[in-house]
Design brief:
5-stranded antiparallel beta sheet; single chain; globular; mainly beta; two-stranded antiparallel ribbon; 109 residues; binds zinc ion
Length: 109
């Protein structure tokens, strides 16, 4: 995992899987409004760098959450498997939502 330090970044996102086989895409983001982090239940201030976790569900569909970077590193990433970096432009919301319109067995990898 040490080679993933500092990611996600502007250039690189991360993709892994949760224990139910859903894809979890971790994407660097700057908040446009106030979010609440599911890790610590604290606020993510407007304008701050943080991590969006976009799930592409195994059965199809997507959902996303905004996390503090440190909370994601401490609480979320340790539970993901097969984590690897992917170019950030592959993790745009439109691409991931399109990906979610197919169940996992019919997606390209
Ligand atoms: Zn947090």
């Amino acid at each position: 995992m040490s080679d993933l330090g500092g990611l996600p970044s502007i250039r690189w996102s991360l993709r892994g899987y949760d224990d139910e086989g859903n894809e979890a895409w971790l994407i660097r983001n700057i908040s446009q409004k106030l979010y609440r982090c599911p890790g610590c239940h604290g606020e993510i201030e407007i304008g701050s760098e943080h991590v969006v976790v976009q799930y592409v569900m195994r059965v199809g569909g997507t959902e996303h959450h905004h996390w503090h970077r440190r909370c994601a590193e401490e609480l979320l990433i340790p539970d993901l498997i097969r984590l690897k970096r992917v170019p950030a432009n592959e993790s745009s919301r439109s691409k991931l939502e399109a990906r979610g319109r197919r169940p996992a067995g019919r997606r390209r990898h």
